[in-house]
Amino acid sequence: MEKKERDDDRTALIFLGTGCSAAVPHFRCLLQPSDPPCHVCSQSLTLLPHLNPNYRCNTSLLIDYCCEEEDGRHYYMIIDVGKSFREQVVRWFTFYKIPRIDSIILTHEHADAIHGLDDIRSLQPRGSAIDTNPLPVFLSQFTMESISTRFPYLVEKKVKEVPRRVSQLDWRIIEENCDKPFTSSGLSFTPLPVMHGEDYVALGFLFGNKSKVAYISDVSRIPPSTEYAISKAGAGQLDLLILDTNVPSMRGRQPTHLCLPETLEIIKRLCPKRALLTGMTHYFDHHEYNEILAEWSLRTSGTGSCNRRIGKGRRGLHYRPLDLADCREARGGLGEEEESGGKSGSGGSGGRGGMEPSPAVKRDGDRAEALLEGNQGFAMHCSLTTRSFKGLRRPRFGNNDEALAIAETMHGLRHLQLFGNKLSNTGLSAILDNCPNLEHLDLRQCFNVNLVGDLEKRCSERIKVVRHPNDSTHDYPFDATVIDMDSDEEDKLNCYDFDNYDYDMYIDI
Ligand SMILES: [Zn+2]
Ligand SMILES: [Zn+2]
């Protein structure tokens, strides 16, 4: 697999797993297939995991925290180490060049959150089992007691006659209380107690000083006190909400998890700038549900206060709200945080007026990043690409929706990759008109763009690096196959995934 370059000055959130406890594919769908077979699970028989967005490990998030106070030193925190932890390390730690873990935070004590604890020893230096630096693990008292029973060898510090190598862990109890934050590897976390079934409390976490991120992976109901803690009135508007969604409909709903309609209701109530969904079973097809969520976002934004239109009132001209926060709004949030010391009460002020919620189901290995450049606010990198996009030599369909949306909402954009996009010169002109800070523009395989004359001149004069539509794709990390439409094979159209994009987002935590 091709490795990405690591950026040294950015904080990143890496989705190590976005699946349910049984993970996806489900064993039974492979061993005793139904008729017709399960479409989502069957893909694992034909696609390699890193090319298959429907391949999902246990839910887990890695926070690659770049600490400004320590000259950009990186800390690596992981939320939950479940049954598929080893596989996640092999796949994504190597891919993103994560060298170690500095601390672990546990949401609860179910197998899909803790059964990887044993494998932590493989990340720790060898030596006498007793003198290895123990790794901090933040967990509730209830989770601690359960682990003590199930993994006594990880908890008891008995000196054995014949020493055996086990994970060296430093257990740190946190309270299930929104008012009792704790600090892990230099970053403050607020515990968010939620119901995971009505007889069980699991924890989510709120973190980020400049942008607020709430991560709630195992939840059936959010109690009012917790909802207040992450609401506009409590913590201010969330920049990013990462939320559980287990099955697509109320039918077949598990009493221990949210289903999609419940998840969307919560997103509507909390109105984060962006929402990403995780914890999915095999009932979710990644592409299909991202389309459904894009439509939902459009409908929701059409009824909300942050309605955005192009044109005059024609319903059909609403554009799809993007998953990215506007730079100016992000700067507003930064200022508020600095002035108020990161505390509450600023939700109503203008800078955080906000984007409409625009949820997407995430795939394993996806990354959201942060970058802050001096005092100039956020440098946002917008990447509209798909992992499996195939460019068209002679595209039949032009579409400037995304380009116009970018032009209207992202005036502070510096880096923009529109690989294989269907925009035309009209869309590109709008971006040049409205994004004066653009420094890097990648238009490879955007074959509707004809970069000549005045447009070419504007690009080359204004933008430091321009990648042209026909430029080499050798350094593009995903499938960049170009299919020549002269071959007139209609069925090839079926393999194009015109409207499915993955986004990289840069927010500063
Ligand atoms: Zn299945
Ligand atoms: Zn659970």
UniProtKB/TrEMBL annotation:
<dbReference type="InterPro" id="IPR001279">
    <property type="entry name" value="Metallo-B-lactamas"/>
</dbReference>
<dbReference type="InterPro" id="IPR032675">
    <property type="entry name" value="LRR_dom_sf"/>
</dbReference>
<dbReference type="InterPro" id="IPR036866">
    <property type="entry name" value="RibonucZ/Hydroxyglut_hydro"/>
</dbReference>
<feature type="domain" description="Metallo-beta-lactamase">
    <location>
        <begin position="78"/>
        <end position="279"/>
    </location>
</feature>
<protein>
    <recommendedName>
        <fullName>Metallo-beta-lactamase domain-containing protein</fullName>
    </recommendedName>
</protein>
<feature type="compositionally biased region" description="Gly residues">
    <location>
        <begin position="342"/>
        <end position="354"/>
    </location>
</feature>
<dbReference type="Pfam" id="PF12706">
    <property type="entry name" value="Lactamase_B_2"/>
</dbReference>
<feature type="region of interest" description="Disordered">
    <location>
        <begin position="332"/>
        <end position="365"/>
    </location>
</feature>
